[in-house]
Amino acid sequence: MEVEAFSLKISNVLSKGKFIIPDYQREYDWDESEIDELLEDLEDVKPDESYFIGHMVFEGKFTGNVFKVIDGQQRITTLTIMLCVIRDLFYTKGLNNLGDGINDKYIFGKDVDNNPFVILENKMPYPVLQSYVQSVPDKKDLTIKPTKSGEKKIIKAYEHFNSLFKNKSEQELKDIRDKILNLEVIFVAASDNVDAHSIFMTLNATGKDLTPIDLIKNQIFSLYPKQPHIDEPNDTWKKIIENVDENAIKFFNNFWSSRYKKISDSRLFKEFYKNIIKKKVPIKNFLSELLADSEIYRKINNPIENDWSLQNEYKIYLSLNAITNVFGIEVSNSMLISLIREYIKKDISQAFLIKALNIIEKFHFINNAICSNRSSGLDQFYSKASRELLNGQNKQSKHLVIDSFIQSLEEKIPSKDQFEVNFDSKLYFSSKSTKQRKLVYYVLNKIEFKKQNGNMKLHNMSIEHIYPESPKANVWKPLDEKYIINIGNLVLLDAGLNSKIGNADYKKKKKIILKKSNIISTKEVLENNGDWSEIQIKKRRDELVNLCFKDIWE
Q1: 359 and 410 Cβ atoms separated by less than 8 Å
Q2: How crowded is residue 192: how many other Cβ atoms within 10 Å of its Cβ?
Protein backbone atom coordinates (compact mmCIF):
# COMPACT_ATOMS: atom_id res chain seq x y z
CA MET A 1 0.00 0.00 0.00
CA GLU A 2 1.59 3.26 -1.15
CA VAL A 3 0.12 6.42 0.33
CA GLU A 4 1.74 9.84 0.23
CA ALA A 5 0.51 13.13 1.64
CA PHE A 6 1.98 16.55 1.03
CA SER A 7 0.94 20.12 1.65
CA LEU A 8 0.53 21.78 -1.76
CA LYS A 9 -0.78 25.03 -3.13
CA ILE A 10 -3.59 24.82 -5.68
CA SER A 11 -1.19 26.14 -8.32
CA ASN A 12 1.02 23.08 -7.72
CA VAL A 13 -1.96 20.71 -7.61
CA LEU A 14 -3.35 21.86 -10.99
CA SER A 15 0.13 21.69 -12.51
CA LYS A 16 0.58 18.00 -11.71
CA GLY A 17 -1.44 16.61 -14.64
CA LYS A 18 -4.98 15.41 -15.30
CA PHE A 19 -7.67 15.08 -12.62
CA ILE A 20 -10.63 12.86 -13.43
CA ILE A 21 -13.95 12.98 -11.59
CA PRO A 22 -15.33 9.42 -11.98
CA ASP A 23 -18.92 8.92 -13.10
CA TYR A 24 -19.82 7.27 -9.77
CA GLN A 25 -19.18 10.50 -7.85
CA ARG A 26 -22.16 12.60 -6.77
CA GLU A 27 -23.06 15.59 -8.89
CA TYR A 28 -21.70 19.08 -8.36
CA ASP A 29 -23.69 20.44 -5.44
CA TRP A 30 -22.42 23.84 -4.31
CA ASP A 31 -24.96 26.65 -4.01
CA GLU A 32 -24.40 30.37 -3.58
CA SER A 33 -24.12 29.98 0.21
CA GLU A 34 -21.03 27.72 -0.04
CA ILE A 35 -19.59 29.88 -2.82
CA ASP A 36 -20.07 33.11 -0.87
CA GLU A 37 -18.50 31.53 2.22
CA LEU A 38 -15.39 30.67 0.17
CA LEU A 39 -15.27 34.20 -1.23
CA GLU A 40 -15.64 35.63 2.28
CA ASP A 41 -12.62 33.59 3.34
CA LEU A 42 -10.62 34.86 0.38
CA GLU A 43 -11.44 38.48 1.18
CA ASP A 44 -9.32 38.30 4.33
CA VAL A 45 -6.34 36.67 2.63
CA LYS A 46 -3.56 38.65 0.98
CA PRO A 47 -2.66 37.63 -2.61
CA ASP A 48 0.76 36.33 -1.54
CA GLU A 49 -0.57 34.41 1.49
CA SER A 50 -1.63 30.77 1.63
CA TYR A 51 -4.89 29.65 3.23
CA PHE A 52 -5.62 26.06 4.24
CA ILE A 53 -8.85 24.53 2.83
CA GLY A 54 -8.52 20.92 4.01
CA HIS A 55 -7.46 17.61 2.49
CA MET A 56 -8.09 16.17 -0.98
CA VAL A 57 -7.80 12.44 -1.68
CA PHE A 58 -6.79 11.09 -5.09
CA GLU A 59 -6.17 7.69 -6.63
CA GLY A 60 -2.77 7.67 -8.30
CA LYS A 61 0.94 7.89 -7.54
CA PHE A 62 2.10 11.25 -6.24
CA THR A 63 4.86 11.26 -8.89
CA GLY A 64 2.36 10.41 -11.64
CA ASN A 65 0.30 12.73 -13.82
CA VAL A 66 -3.20 11.22 -13.84
CA PHE A 67 -5.38 11.21 -10.73
CA LYS A 68 -8.93 10.17 -9.94
CA VAL A 69 -10.68 12.52 -7.52
CA ILE A 70 -11.94 10.54 -4.52
CA ASP A 71 -12.55 13.39 -2.07
CA GLY A 72 -12.46 17.10 -2.94
CA GLN A 73 -14.38 17.28 -6.20
CA GLN A 74 -16.69 20.09 -5.01
CA ARG A 75 -13.73 22.30 -4.11
CA ILE A 76 -11.56 21.53 -7.15
CA THR A 77 -14.54 22.05 -9.48
CA THR A 78 -15.45 25.37 -7.82
CA LEU A 79 -11.86 26.64 -8.00
CA THR A 80 -11.68 25.63 -11.67
CA ILE A 81 -14.90 27.52 -12.40
CA MET A 82 -13.53 30.61 -10.65
CA LEU A 83 -10.30 30.50 -12.66
CA CYS A 84 -12.28 30.07 -15.89
CA VAL A 85 -14.40 33.13 -15.09
CA ILE A 86 -11.28 35.24 -14.39
CA ARG A 87 -9.64 33.94 -17.60
CA ASP A 88 -12.73 34.80 -19.65
CA LEU A 89 -12.84 38.31 -18.19
CA PHE A 90 -9.16 38.82 -19.03
CA TYR A 91 -9.92 37.86 -22.65
CA THR A 92 -12.99 40.14 -22.70
CA LYS A 93 -10.84 43.05 -21.50
CA GLY A 94 -8.23 42.31 -24.21
CA LEU A 95 -5.70 41.06 -21.63
CA ASN A 96 -4.87 37.96 -23.67
CA ASN A 97 -1.51 37.26 -22.01
CA LEU A 98 -3.19 37.09 -18.60
CA GLY A 99 -5.97 34.91 -20.03
CA ASP A 100 -3.46 32.54 -21.63
CA GLY A 101 -1.53 32.41 -18.34
CA ILE A 102 -4.52 30.78 -16.66
CA ASN A 103 -5.83 28.81 -19.65
CA ASP A 104 -2.58 27.14 -20.69
CA LYS A 105 -1.44 26.24 -17.19
CA TYR A 106 -4.44 25.61 -14.95
CA ILE A 107 -7.39 24.82 -17.27
CA PHE A 108 -5.65 22.97 -20.12
CA GLY A 109 -2.33 21.16 -20.25
CA LYS A 110 -0.29 19.40 -22.92
CA ASP A 111 0.91 15.80 -22.96
CA VAL A 112 4.32 14.55 -24.06
CA ASP A 113 3.16 14.67 -27.69
CA ASN A 114 2.14 18.31 -27.24
CA ASN A 115 -1.55 17.43 -27.49
CA PRO A 116 -3.86 19.55 -25.29
CA PHE A 117 -5.96 17.99 -22.55
CA VAL A 118 -8.39 19.43 -20.03
CA ILE A 119 -6.87 19.38 -16.53
CA LEU A 120 -10.16 18.70 -14.69
CA GLU A 121 -12.10 16.09 -16.61
CA ASN A 122 -15.61 15.22 -15.53
CA LYS A 123 -16.61 11.66 -16.46
CA MET A 124 -20.22 12.19 -15.46
CA PRO A 125 -22.64 11.88 -18.41
CA TYR A 126 -22.90 15.60 -19.22
CA PRO A 127 -20.52 17.94 -21.08
CA VAL A 128 -21.52 21.21 -19.41
CA LEU A 129 -18.29 21.76 -17.44
CA GLN A 130 -16.06 21.70 -20.53
CA SER A 131 -18.42 23.19 -23.12
CA TYR A 132 -19.86 26.00 -21.00
CA VAL A 133 -17.07 26.71 -18.52
CA GLN A 134 -13.64 25.39 -19.47
CA SER A 135 -13.74 26.30 -23.15
CA VAL A 136 -12.43 29.75 -24.05
CA PRO A 137 -15.11 32.37 -24.87
CA ASP A 138 -15.11 31.98 -28.68
CA LYS A 139 -15.35 28.19 -28.44
CA LYS A 140 -18.03 27.82 -25.77
CA ASP A 141 -21.06 25.78 -26.78
CA LEU A 142 -23.96 27.57 -25.12
CA THR A 143 -26.58 25.56 -27.02
CA ILE A 144 -26.25 22.66 -24.59
CA LYS A 145 -29.15 22.77 -22.19
CA PRO A 146 -28.61 21.48 -18.64
CA THR A 147 -30.98 18.73 -17.54
CA LYS A 148 -29.47 17.47 -14.28
CA SER A 149 -29.12 19.31 -11.00
CA GLY A 150 -25.31 19.18 -11.14
CA GLU A 151 -25.30 20.71 -14.65
CA LYS A 152 -27.56 23.56 -13.57
CA LYS A 153 -25.44 24.29 -10.51
CA ILE A 154 -22.24 24.42 -12.56
CA ILE A 155 -23.78 27.03 -14.88
CA LYS A 156 -25.25 28.90 -11.93
CA ALA A 157 -21.86 28.97 -10.19
CA TYR A 158 -20.15 30.28 -13.35
CA GLU A 159 -22.75 33.03 -13.78
CA HIS A 160 -22.62 33.93 -10.07
CA PHE A 161 -18.84 34.37 -10.17
CA ASN A 162 -19.12 36.30 -13.43
CA SER A 163 -21.66 38.74 -11.97
CA LEU A 164 -19.41 39.32 -8.94
CA PHE A 165 -16.14 39.71 -10.90
CA LYS A 166 -17.16 41.44 -14.16
CA ASN A 167 -16.76 45.01 -12.87
CA LYS A 168 -13.44 44.40 -11.15
CA SER A 169 -10.24 46.00 -12.38
CA GLU A 170 -7.29 44.14 -13.87
CA GLN A 171 -5.43 44.29 -10.57
CA GLU A 172 -8.42 43.09 -8.57
CA LEU A 173 -8.82 40.10 -10.90
CA LYS A 174 -5.12 39.31 -10.60
CA ASP A 175 -5.39 39.46 -6.82
CA ILE A 176 -8.31 36.99 -6.78
CA ARG A 177 -6.39 34.71 -9.18
CA ASP A 178 -3.35 34.75 -6.91
CA LYS A 179 -5.43 34.07 -3.80
CA ILE A 180 -6.96 31.01 -5.48
CA LEU A 181 -3.61 29.67 -6.66
CA ASN A 182 -2.10 30.15 -3.19
CA LEU A 183 -4.82 28.15 -1.41
CA GLU A 184 -3.24 25.24 0.44
CA VAL A 185 -4.47 21.63 0.67
CA ILE A 186 -3.20 18.34 2.02
CA PHE A 187 -2.73 16.34 -1.20
CA VAL A 188 -3.27 12.66 -0.34
CA ALA A 189 -2.28 10.24 -3.14
CA ALA A 190 -2.99 6.50 -2.90
CA SER A 191 -1.66 4.04 -5.45
CA ASP A 192 -4.93 2.21 -6.12
CA ASN A 193 -8.66 2.60 -5.80
CA VAL A 194 -8.97 0.47 -2.66
CA ASP A 195 -6.31 2.46 -0.83
CA ALA A 196 -7.80 5.80 -1.86
CA HIS A 197 -11.28 4.83 -0.71
CA SER A 198 -9.92 3.41 2.56
CA ILE A 199 -8.30 6.75 3.28
CA PHE A 200 -11.47 8.59 2.32
CA MET A 201 -13.56 6.37 4.60
CA THR A 202 -11.07 6.80 7.45
CA LEU A 203 -11.23 10.55 7.15
CA ASN A 204 -14.97 10.76 6.67
CA ALA A 205 -16.59 7.75 8.37
CA THR A 206 -19.23 8.51 10.99
CA GLY A 207 -17.52 9.54 14.20
CA LYS A 208 -14.17 9.95 12.49
CA ASP A 209 -14.63 13.19 10.59
CA LEU A 210 -11.86 15.69 10.95
CA THR A 211 -13.81 18.16 13.06
CA PRO A 212 -12.77 21.81 13.43
CA ILE A 213 -11.40 20.87 16.85
CA ASP A 214 -9.22 18.13 15.34
CA LEU A 215 -7.76 20.63 12.89
CA ILE A 216 -7.23 23.25 15.60
CA LYS A 217 -5.58 20.69 17.87
CA ASN A 218 -3.21 19.62 15.08
CA GLN A 219 -2.18 23.22 14.47
CA ILE A 220 -1.62 23.88 18.19
CA PHE A 221 0.42 20.70 18.65
CA SER A 222 2.57 21.39 15.59
CA LEU A 223 3.34 24.99 16.58
CA TYR A 224 3.68 24.63 20.35
CA PRO A 225 7.31 25.17 21.47
CA LYS A 226 8.70 21.81 22.56
CA GLN A 227 10.58 21.46 25.86
CA PRO A 228 12.47 18.35 27.03
CA HIS A 229 10.79 16.21 29.71
CA ILE A 230 7.58 18.31 29.57
CA ASP A 231 4.52 16.71 27.99
CA GLU A 232 3.05 19.89 26.58
CA PRO A 233 0.76 20.81 24.97
CA ASN A 234 -0.68 17.34 25.57
CA ASP A 235 -1.25 17.81 29.33
CA THR A 236 -3.04 21.14 28.88
CA TRP A 237 -5.17 19.80 26.04
CA LYS A 238 -6.27 16.85 28.20
CA LYS A 239 -7.38 19.27 30.93
CA ILE A 240 -9.37 21.29 28.42
CA ILE A 241 -11.15 18.20 27.09
CA GLU A 242 -11.88 17.02 30.66
CA ASN A 243 -13.43 20.41 31.44
CA VAL A 244 -15.68 20.51 28.37
CA ASP A 245 -16.48 16.79 28.35
CA GLU A 246 -18.17 15.94 25.03
CA ASN A 247 -18.93 19.55 24.18
CA ALA A 248 -15.61 20.56 22.61
CA ILE A 249 -17.14 22.23 19.55
CA LYS A 250 -19.79 24.04 21.63
CA PHE A 251 -17.12 25.24 24.03
CA PHE A 252 -14.79 26.47 21.32
CA ASN A 253 -17.70 28.29 19.65
CA ASN A 254 -18.58 29.97 22.98
CA PHE A 255 -14.90 30.78 23.58
CA TRP A 256 -14.58 32.33 20.13
CA SER A 257 -17.87 34.19 20.44
CA SER A 258 -16.78 35.74 23.74
CA ARG A 259 -13.43 36.96 22.37
CA TYR A 260 -13.69 37.44 18.59
CA LYS A 261 -17.14 37.15 16.98
CA LYS A 262 -20.12 34.85 16.66
CA ILE A 263 -19.60 32.27 13.90
CA SER A 264 -21.02 28.93 12.80
CA ASP A 265 -19.34 25.69 13.86
CA SER A 266 -18.24 25.07 10.27
CA ARG A 267 -16.17 28.28 10.28
CA LEU A 268 -14.30 27.63 13.52
CA PHE A 269 -11.09 26.37 11.97
CA LYS A 270 -11.10 29.02 9.24
CA GLU A 271 -11.46 31.81 11.79
CA PHE A 272 -8.83 30.23 14.02
CA TYR A 273 -6.42 29.97 11.12
CA LYS A 274 -7.05 33.55 10.03
CA ASN A 275 -6.91 35.17 13.47
CA ILE A 276 -4.38 33.00 15.32
CA ILE A 277 -2.11 31.26 12.82
CA LYS A 278 -1.89 33.99 10.19
CA LYS A 279 -1.49 36.75 12.76
CA LYS A 280 1.18 34.69 14.54
CA VAL A 281 -0.48 34.87 17.94
CA PRO A 282 1.82 33.03 20.40
CA ILE A 283 0.29 29.56 20.52
CA LYS A 284 1.30 29.05 24.16
CA ASN A 285 -0.67 32.14 25.20
CA PHE A 286 -3.64 31.06 23.12
CA LEU A 287 -3.69 27.62 24.74
CA SER A 288 -3.54 29.21 28.22
CA GLU A 289 -6.60 31.32 27.38
CA LEU A 290 -8.35 28.23 26.08
CA LEU A 291 -7.62 26.34 29.33
CA ALA A 292 -8.77 29.21 31.56
CA ASP A 293 -12.02 29.61 29.66
CA SER A 294 -12.63 25.85 29.62
CA GLU A 295 -12.57 25.90 33.44
CA ILE A 296 -15.14 28.70 33.41
CA TYR A 297 -17.22 26.73 30.89
CA ARG A 298 -17.25 23.76 33.27
CA LYS A 299 -18.49 25.98 36.10
CA ILE A 300 -21.26 27.29 33.86
CA ASN A 301 -22.42 23.99 32.40
CA ASN A 302 -21.91 21.86 35.49
CA PRO A 303 -22.51 24.32 38.35
CA ILE A 304 -21.59 23.00 41.78
CA GLU A 305 -21.83 24.88 45.03
CA ASN A 306 -18.20 24.23 46.03
CA ASP A 307 -16.96 26.35 43.13
CA TRP A 308 -18.57 29.40 44.75
CA SER A 309 -17.54 29.38 48.38
CA LEU A 310 -16.74 33.04 49.03
CA GLN A 311 -19.19 35.43 50.70
CA ASN A 312 -22.33 36.01 48.59
CA GLU A 313 -21.05 33.70 45.83
CA TYR A 314 -23.92 31.33 46.55
CA LYS A 315 -26.07 33.76 44.56
CA ILE A 316 -23.76 33.23 41.58
CA TYR A 317 -24.20 29.48 41.89
CA LEU A 318 -28.01 29.81 42.06
CA SER A 319 -28.17 31.92 38.90
CA LEU A 320 -25.88 29.60 36.94
CA ASN A 321 -27.84 26.56 38.10
CA ALA A 322 -31.12 28.18 37.05
CA ILE A 323 -29.89 29.28 33.63
CA THR A 324 -28.23 25.96 32.83
CA ASN A 325 -30.11 23.23 34.67
CA VAL A 326 -33.60 24.66 35.11
CA PHE A 327 -34.07 26.64 31.89
CA GLY A 328 -31.60 24.67 29.73
CA ILE A 329 -30.18 27.86 28.19
CA GLU A 330 -26.91 27.79 26.21
CA VAL A 331 -27.24 30.92 24.08
CA SER A 332 -25.95 33.15 26.90
CA ASN A 333 -22.74 31.12 27.41
CA SER A 334 -20.43 33.60 25.68
CA MET A 335 -21.56 36.41 28.00
CA LEU A 336 -21.40 34.16 31.06
CA ILE A 337 -17.81 33.20 30.18
CA SER A 338 -16.89 36.85 29.70
CA LEU A 339 -18.52 37.95 32.97
CA ILE A 340 -16.91 35.26 35.10
CA ARG A 341 -13.55 35.74 33.38
CA GLU A 342 -13.58 39.43 34.33
CA TYR A 343 -14.73 38.60 37.88
CA ILE A 344 -11.90 36.10 38.35
CA LYS A 345 -9.42 38.72 37.16
CA LYS A 346 -11.06 41.20 39.61
CA ASP A 347 -11.79 43.53 36.70
CA ILE A 348 -15.47 43.69 37.67
CA SER A 349 -16.95 43.62 41.16
CA GLN A 350 -18.99 40.80 42.63
CA ALA A 351 -22.02 43.09 42.83
CA PHE A 352 -21.89 43.81 39.10
CA LEU A 353 -21.46 40.13 38.26
CA ILE A 354 -24.52 39.25 40.35
CA LYS A 355 -26.53 42.09 38.77
CA ALA A 356 -25.68 40.83 35.28
CA LEU A 357 -26.46 37.20 36.14
CA ASN A 358 -29.75 38.31 37.69
CA ILE A 359 -30.96 39.99 34.49
CA ILE A 360 -29.91 37.00 32.35
CA GLU A 361 -31.75 34.68 34.73
CA LYS A 362 -34.82 36.94 34.78
CA PHE A 363 -34.92 37.32 31.01
CA HIS A 364 -34.69 33.61 30.25
CA PHE A 365 -37.17 32.70 32.98
CA ILE A 366 -39.77 35.00 31.41
CA ASN A 367 -38.81 34.71 27.74
CA ASN A 368 -38.00 31.01 27.52
CA ALA A 369 -39.17 29.07 30.59
CA ILE A 370 -42.61 30.72 30.72
CA CYS A 371 -43.29 32.34 27.32
CA SER A 372 -41.43 29.68 25.25
CA ASN A 373 -40.08 32.33 22.89
CA ARG A 374 -37.24 31.55 20.51
CA SER A 375 -33.75 32.86 21.16
CA SER A 376 -33.07 34.00 17.59
CA GLY A 377 -30.61 36.88 17.42
CA LEU A 378 -29.57 36.54 21.05
CA ASP A 379 -26.34 34.73 20.18
CA GLN A 380 -25.14 37.82 18.32
CA PHE A 381 -26.38 40.09 21.11
CA TYR A 382 -24.53 38.14 23.81
CA SER A 383 -21.38 37.85 21.70
CA LYS A 384 -21.25 41.60 21.10
CA ALA A 385 -21.77 42.37 24.79
CA SER A 386 -19.15 39.83 25.88
CA ARG A 387 -16.55 41.34 23.55
CA GLU A 388 -17.37 44.87 24.69
CA LEU A 389 -16.80 43.70 28.25
CA LEU A 390 -13.50 42.05 27.30
CA ASN A 391 -12.30 45.21 25.58
CA GLY A 392 -13.19 47.58 28.42
CA GLN A 393 -10.15 49.61 29.48
CA ASN A 394 -10.68 49.51 33.25
CA LYS A 395 -13.12 48.43 35.96
CA GLN A 396 -15.24 51.56 35.60
CA SER A 397 -15.64 51.16 31.83
CA LYS A 398 -16.46 47.47 32.23
CA HIS A 399 -19.14 48.32 34.80
CA LEU A 400 -20.63 50.79 32.31
CA VAL A 401 -20.73 47.99 29.72
CA ILE A 402 -22.64 45.82 32.21
CA ASP A 403 -25.11 48.63 32.96
CA SER A 404 -25.75 49.10 29.26
CA PHE A 405 -26.11 45.32 28.78
CA ILE A 406 -28.63 45.12 31.64
CA GLN A 407 -30.72 47.93 30.17
CA SER A 408 -30.69 46.35 26.69
CA LEU A 409 -31.72 42.92 27.97
CA GLU A 410 -34.41 44.44 30.20
CA GLU A 411 -35.94 46.02 27.08
CA LYS A 412 -36.16 42.59 25.42
CA ILE A 413 -38.30 41.07 28.20
CA PRO A 414 -41.78 40.09 26.92
CA SER A 415 -44.82 41.97 28.17
CA LYS A 416 -46.60 41.07 31.36
CA ASP A 417 -49.69 40.15 29.33
CA GLN A 418 -47.73 37.55 27.36
CA PHE A 419 -46.20 36.29 30.60
CA GLU A 420 -49.59 35.87 32.28
CA VAL A 421 -51.14 34.14 29.27
CA ASN A 422 -48.49 31.40 29.51
CA PHE A 423 -48.16 31.31 33.30
CA ASP A 424 -50.62 28.51 34.15
CA SER A 425 -49.47 26.24 31.32
CA LYS A 426 -45.90 26.22 32.67
CA LEU A 427 -46.30 26.35 36.44
CA TYR A 428 -48.21 23.30 37.59
CA PHE A 429 -47.35 20.04 39.30
CA SER A 430 -48.96 16.74 40.24
CA SER A 431 -47.69 13.30 41.12
CA LYS A 432 -49.01 12.13 37.74
CA SER A 433 -47.47 14.96 35.73
CA THR A 434 -43.99 15.86 36.97
CA LYS A 435 -42.68 17.53 33.81
CA GLN A 436 -42.81 21.03 35.28
CA ARG A 437 -41.70 20.07 38.79
CA LYS A 438 -38.19 21.54 38.38
CA LEU A 439 -39.55 24.92 37.25
CA VAL A 440 -42.18 25.05 40.01
CA TYR A 441 -39.57 24.14 42.61
CA TYR A 442 -37.30 26.87 41.23
CA VAL A 443 -40.02 29.54 41.51
CA LEU A 444 -41.01 28.58 45.06
CA ASN A 445 -37.36 28.53 46.11
CA LYS A 446 -36.78 31.88 44.49
CA ILE A 447 -39.61 33.37 46.51
CA GLU A 448 -38.37 31.84 49.75
CA PHE A 449 -34.82 33.00 49.06
CA LYS A 450 -36.10 36.56 48.79
CA LYS A 451 -38.16 36.18 51.99
CA GLN A 452 -35.01 34.98 53.76
CA ASN A 453 -33.06 38.03 52.46
CA GLY A 454 -30.66 35.68 50.70
CA ASN A 455 -29.56 34.08 53.96
CA MET A 456 -30.78 30.59 53.19
CA LYS A 457 -29.22 27.75 51.24
CA LEU A 458 -31.37 25.21 49.46
CA HIS A 459 -32.08 22.18 51.56
CA ASN A 460 -34.25 19.13 51.14
CA MET A 461 -37.76 20.47 50.64
CA SER A 462 -40.76 19.03 48.89
CA ILE A 463 -43.67 20.56 46.98
CA GLU A 464 -46.93 20.40 48.91
CA HIS A 465 -50.44 20.71 47.50
CA ILE A 466 -52.40 22.74 50.08
CA TYR A 467 -55.61 21.35 48.65
CA PRO A 468 -54.58 17.66 48.43
CA GLU A 469 -54.42 15.70 45.20
CA SER A 470 -56.57 12.94 46.73
CA PRO A 471 -58.92 14.74 49.15
CA LYS A 472 -61.28 12.94 51.49
CA ALA A 473 -64.84 13.57 50.33
CA ASN A 474 -66.11 14.43 53.78
CA VAL A 475 -63.17 16.78 54.52
CA TRP A 476 -62.61 18.79 51.33
CA LYS A 477 -65.18 20.23 48.93
CA PRO A 478 -64.82 19.00 45.31
CA LEU A 479 -62.43 21.11 43.20
CA ASP A 480 -61.48 21.10 39.52
CA GLU A 481 -58.06 19.46 39.00
CA LYS A 482 -56.72 22.51 37.13
CA TYR A 483 -56.79 24.42 40.43
CA ILE A 484 -55.28 21.56 42.42
CA ILE A 485 -52.18 21.33 40.21
CA ASN A 486 -51.84 25.12 39.72
CA ILE A 487 -48.89 26.86 41.42
CA GLY A 488 -51.42 28.92 43.35
CA ASN A 489 -52.12 25.75 45.35
CA LEU A 490 -48.46 24.80 45.78
CA VAL A 491 -46.01 25.61 48.58
CA LEU A 492 -42.67 24.32 49.84
CA LEU A 493 -42.68 21.97 52.80
CA ASP A 494 -39.82 20.96 55.10
CA ALA A 495 -38.40 17.47 54.70
CA GLY A 496 -40.34 14.95 56.76
CA LEU A 497 -43.25 17.28 57.52
CA ASN A 498 -45.38 15.89 54.72
CA SER A 499 -45.80 12.55 56.50
CA LYS A 500 -47.03 14.30 59.65
CA ILE A 501 -49.70 16.17 57.72
CA GLY A 502 -51.00 13.24 55.72
CA ASN A 503 -54.43 13.95 54.27
CA ALA A 504 -55.54 16.29 57.05
CA ASP A 505 -58.13 19.01 56.62
CA TYR A 506 -57.02 22.60 56.07
CA LYS A 507 -57.22 23.75 59.70
CA LYS A 508 -55.16 20.83 60.97
CA LYS A 509 -52.65 21.18 58.13
CA LYS A 510 -52.33 24.90 58.87
CA LYS A 511 -51.75 24.32 62.57
CA ILE A 512 -48.98 21.74 62.01
CA ILE A 513 -47.17 23.84 59.38
CA LEU A 514 -47.27 27.05 61.39
CA LYS A 515 -45.84 25.22 64.37
CA LYS A 516 -43.26 22.99 62.68
CA SER A 517 -42.18 24.71 59.45
CA ASN A 518 -39.22 27.03 58.95
CA ILE A 519 -40.34 28.15 55.50
CA ILE A 520 -41.43 31.80 55.67
CA SER A 521 -43.27 31.96 52.33
CA THR A 522 -45.36 28.86 53.17
CA LYS A 523 -46.28 30.09 56.65
CA GLU A 524 -47.33 33.48 55.24
CA VAL A 525 -49.79 31.83 52.84
CA LEU A 526 -51.42 29.88 55.64
CA GLU A 527 -51.40 32.78 58.12
CA ASN A 528 -53.20 34.99 55.61
CA ASN A 529 -55.96 32.52 54.73
CA GLY A 530 -58.54 31.18 57.18
CA ASP A 531 -59.95 28.85 54.55
CA TRP A 532 -58.64 27.26 51.34
CA SER A 533 -60.70 26.83 48.17
CA GLU A 534 -60.83 27.89 44.54
CA ILE A 535 -61.11 31.56 45.54
CA GLN A 536 -57.90 31.53 47.60
CA ILE A 537 -56.00 29.55 44.94
CA LYS A 538 -56.95 32.00 42.18
CA LYS A 539 -56.07 34.96 44.39
CA ARG A 540 -52.64 33.54 45.24
CA ARG A 541 -52.07 32.64 41.61
CA ASP A 542 -52.63 36.29 40.65
CA GLU A 543 -50.23 37.41 43.37
CA LEU A 544 -47.61 35.00 42.07
CA VAL A 545 -47.92 36.41 38.54
CA ASN A 546 -46.95 39.85 39.85
CA LEU A 547 -44.28 38.42 42.13
CA CYS A 548 -42.66 36.29 39.44
CA PHE A 549 -42.75 38.96 36.76
CA LYS A 550 -41.10 41.68 38.80
CA ASP A 551 -40.78 41.56 42.57
CA ILE A 552 -38.55 38.51 43.09
CA TRP A 553 -35.94 40.09 40.79
CA GLU A 554 -35.64 43.36 42.66
Answers
A1: yes
A2: 13
466 and 405 Cβ atoms separated by less than 8 Å: no
CA distance 460 to 464: 13
Instruction: Mark whether 270 and 324 lie in a shared domain.
Output: no
Residue 418: its H or E element? helix 416-426
Pick from 16-20, 208-212, 266-270, 275-279: least confident: 208-212
The percent of residues above 90 in pLDDT, for the chain, comes to 65
The one-letter amino acid code at 57 reads V
**Structural domains of the chain, count:** 4
Q: Are residues 389 and 398 in contact, defined by beta-carbon separation less than 8 angstroms?
A: yes
Same-domain check for residues 329 and 410:
yes
Q: What is the DSSP letter of 105?
A: I
pLDDT in tens, 31-81: 998 899 889 888 878 888 888 888 888 888 889 999 998 888 899 999 999
CA–CA gap between residue 404 and residue 398 (Å, rounded): 10
Is pTM beyond 0.90 here? no
Instruction: Please indicate, yes or no, whether residues 450 and 499 belong to a single structural domain of this protein.
Output: yes
Of 302, 332, 355, the residue at which a domain comes to its end is 302
Strand partners, 57: 71, 188
Domain end (from 395, 414, 433):
414
pLDDT in tens, 373-426: 998 899 999 999 999 999 999 999 999 999 999 999 999 999 999 999 999 999
- 87 with 181: CB under 8 angstroms? no
Q: State how far the Cα of 331 lies from the Cα of 380, in Å rounded to an integer.
A: 9
Torsion, Cα 403 408 410 414, to 10 degrees, reads -170
User: Is the same domain home to 355 and 436?
Assistant: no
**Pairing of β 116-118 and β 108-110:** antiparallel
Distance CA 467, CA 454 (A): 29
Whether residues 434 and 525 share a domain: the answer is yes
Domain around 348? 303-414
Helices and strands in the chain, H and E counts: 25, 10
Query: Are residue 400 and residue 447 in the same domain, yes or no?
Result: no
Q: What is the rounded CA–CA span in Å between residue 95 and residue 89?
A: 8
Report d(CA 69, CA 439) in Å as an integer.
55
